[in-house]
Amino acid sequence: MQHSLMNRLAELAAITDTPGALTRLFLSPAHKRAIELITGWMQDAGLETEIDAIGNLVGRSPNAAGKPRLLLGSHIDTVRDAGAYDGNFGVLAAITAVKSMEALPYAIEIIAFGDEEGSRFPQTLSGSRAVTGNFDMNALSSADSTGATMGDALRAFGGDPDSIPKIARNPAEILAYVELHIEQGPVLEAKNLPVGIVTAINGASRLAVTLTGAAGHAGTVPMAMRRDALAAAAEQILFIETYGKSIPNLVATVGSLAIHPGAPNSIPGRATYSIDIRAPEDSARREAVATISARLEEIAATRNIEIAITQTHNAPATTCASWLQDQLADAIAAQNLPVCHLPSGAGHDAMAIAALCPVAMLFTRCKGGISHTPAESITAEDANIAVAVLTRFLRSFKMPETP
Ligand code: HGY
Ligand code: MN
Ligand code: MN
After folding, report:
1. Is the entire prediction scored with pTM above 0.85?
2. Atom of ligand 1 at shortest distance to CA of 124?
3. CATH 3.30.70.360 spans which residues of the chain?
């Protein structure tokens, strides 16, 4: 049966590490099974496939070696309890477009990146950073919540940590990178448009905070003698929210929190939490990291709590190449659709790939702007329009006279 793009997305969404919800972590059994399924679809589209040393799945048009290559793709890892389209849509839409394509004057490489979300290890964009030669090998010693290191997980997965540096592409061989992705926001729906062109991607910083106080009996330790790590975290988290609200276009989020020992009748001795800070301007984001960190230190000192703040991710704001945006605009106009440009508040692999070559993104409308939850949804019509726009873009793609 001819698999429609939506059928394939549904089939892929069933591949999860946590039955009943979609969670597909980097280097997990579900990641491996997803690679197996997508490999078949890539080969069905005439692509030669390989799994690289860090677990990215790569599909190349035949005889691509040495030819200038246009990169397509997105990520196939997910957040916990994810929607079916974030990342996965971009990979399968690219395969669908390439399958319908006649021979092109340039080679195509579709990459299904294994770790964009950073849901398992503290780092994010590991797969795309390896492709650009910017993967930090120290990340191999970072551990997931079970204590497994990325290096051990990669070896168990069949990867080859020592060969990661060899993944780096030669910039002279790469023409550009174009990523299809759901918008994950409300703009296209509000404008009643199926697709839009990304102008720029907000920069992002991620911090890990560890607070150490004193665990104790909830019934016997007087309030004035406590060093309650969770109470300190609560005061700090409220400051983070207040600061985020005070700066236009900046967002600051505490998405994960863990306390120890975590018993109703024990005073929390330790609290760890994440901070995600984003802004269109890198200066505002850097100032936010500095201001928030300083205030967290003050609150910890006042409460006699030890604090450790580690920056685990830092990605500068990324501008999409105007000549690529123009060619996407032509492809949209050829569908008799209005052309809309919009910024991306969400992060994407394109942020990492921008270190290698010019990048662009095409957004597809998603219902209610909802993402990173099972309620994430797109329509088959919009998916087909996005594929039609990409197909038209690929047919007319040309390098600018003066890049
Ligand atoms: O966090 C993000 O913006 C992306 O989904 N990784
Ligand atoms: Mn995501
Ligand atoms: Mn994504």
Report:
1. yes
2. 6
3. 203-315
Give distance in angstroms: CA of 347 to centre of ligand 1. Answer: 4
> What pLDDT does residue 384 have?
96
Q: From the CB of 347, is ligand 1 less than 6 Å away?
A: yes
Residue 1 above 50 pLDDT?
no
Q: Contact at 8 Å (CB) between 5 and 92?
A: yes
DSSP string, 111-138: EEES-SS-SSSS---HHHHHHHT---GG
Average pLDDT taken over every residue of the chain = 96
pLDDT beyond 90 at 65 = no
CA–CA dist 196, 260 (Å, integer): 45
CATH of 203-315, one of 3.30.70.360, 3.40.630.30, 3.30.450.20, 3.40.50.2300: 3.30.70.360
Ligand 1, atom 6, lies closest to the CA of: 117
pLDDT of residue 66: 79
Q: Which CATH number fits domain 2-201+317-396: 1.10.10.10, 3.30.110.30, 3.40.630.10, 3.90.180.10?
A: 3.40.630.10
Alpha-carbon radius of gyration of the chain: 22
Q: Quick check: bond before 261 cis, omega within 30?
A: yes
CA 270 to centroid of ligand 1, rounded, Å: 27
Q: pLDDT tens, 278-289? A: 999 999 999 999
